[in-house]
Design a protein that fits this description.
This is Sphingolipid delta 4 desaturase. One of its GO terms (biological process) is ceramide biosynthetic process. The chain is an all-alpha fold. It folds into two domains: about 130 residues, no CATH class; about 190 residues, no CATH class. It is about 50% helix and about 0% strand. The strands form two sheets. Strands 1-3 form a two-stranded parallel sheet. A two-stranded parallel sheet has the order 2-4.
């Protein structure tokens, strides 16, 4: 797809091209998002990840951030609490009308299920325990109420996402062309894509090379065994309606029925300012119920910092985050703009060509 010769054309406009080893790319304004101005085409850059550059600048200016803890044990408590709360709620709803199951799944189940995905994200980066074994064990536990054994696969592809951020097509977070062709140019198409994102992301992974890193492991086998056994015994305990609640909660946490929590996967890396900013944080209430998942620039800059300390990082290096970048304040707003703007498609991304060697 052609690239405009306007301000985002970093290949032809020398004023916007920045060194790959120093400095940060230009952005269009800073502060909360007041205007969404995406384009239905890629914004191509040649430089390395902004996150690597910004980490160096912040570390040099504020070396104390390198002393932030690298794990946070209380997250393990939240894993157990959320898994238990979902199972208990499923049991309580066993004799409830279907409309009530939908309401509780939308208002509570999806929030709890999404929170578990955030904790799986923490465990993926080994940010809960000092050793990888316990992080992997609790990742299996956190994935149980999602029913589908997807936690270990997520860990594999999420690590590729960090290593090859926005590389076409090596970063599994970058939509493949057929997604844009079939779903990206109408409200209905985008809504279908959004509602079934859990299926889309599973199919998308087929198109991505493994970079000599096979997703198969004994942890993957354990993931399947644990979820199959959990699903069988819990279904006996909570009944058909209880299982319906768990299934709906899991799907809604990823956007089913246009649940706004699913907009997180749009908010994080879709380009909405026609600048070279490739990652967007979201500040607001979502971080209260989502273990600070909105602090996404901060996380990509410092992947070894647990969620609880990310606001500290933002406060210390404010000029690099709230004072230096555009950011979201509402997933509802992101979803609305995504569905209603013609130019907001799956090509509204900052991308870079894949490395020749990895």
């Amino acid at each position: 797809m052609g690239i405009s010769n306007k301000k985002v054309d970093v290949q032809n406009d020398g004023a916007n091209k920045y060194p790959s080893k120093s400095g940060l790319p230009p952005t269009v304004g800073t502060g909360p998002m007041d205007k969404y101005d995406p384009k239905d085409e890629y914004i191509r850059v040649e430089a390395v990840q902004q996150h690597w550059l910004r980490r160096k600048l912040i570390s040099d200016k504020y070396p104390e951030v390198l002393n932030l803890p690298t794990y946070y044990l209380p997250s393990a408590f939240w894993v157990v609490a959320l898994v238990s709360s979902l199972v208990i709620t499923a049991k309580i709803l066993n004799n409830s009308p279907i409309w009530l199951i939908f309401v509780v799944a939308y208002l509570f189940g999806a929030v709890a299920s999404h929170a578990l995905w955030v904790l799986i994200h923490e465990l993926t980066h080994d940010l809960v325990f000092p050793g990888s074994f316990l992080n992997s064990t609790f990742l299996l536990i956190a994935n149980l109420p999602h029913l589908i054994p997807s936690g270990v696969s997520f860990r594999h592809f999420h690590r590729l996402h960090h290593s090859f951020l926005n590389e076409t097509y090596t970063d599994p977070d970058v939509p493949v062309p057929f997604e844009n062709k079939f779903f990206g140019h109408s409200i209905v198409g985008k809504a279908i894509w959004f509602c079934f994102y859990s299926i889309v992301i599973s199919l998308r992974s087929i198109f991505y090379p493994l970079k000599n890193q096979s997703p198969f492991s004994m942890w993957l086998v354990a993931n399947y065994i644990c979820n199959i056994v959990f699903t069988y015994y819990v279904s006996q305990y909570v009944g058909v309606k209880g299982m319906t609640f768990l299934v709906l909660s899991s799907l809604m946490s990823l956007g089913f029925l246009l649940h706004p929590l699913g907009a997180r996967w749009i908010a994080e890396h879709f380009a909405v300012t026609q600048s070279e900013q490739e990652t967007y944080s979201t500040y607001g209430f979502i971080n209260t119920i989502g273990f600070n998942i909105g602090y996404h620039n901060e996380h990509h800059d410092f992947t070894r910092v647990p969620y609880i300390y990310l606001p500290t990082l933002t406060k210390v290096a404010n000029e690099f985050y709230k004072g230096g970048l555009k950011y979201h304040t509402s997933y509802w707003r992101v979803l609305y703009e995504f569905l209603n703007q013609d130019g907001f498609t799956f090509n509204s991304r900052v991308v870079r060509n894949p490395k020749l060697k990895n």
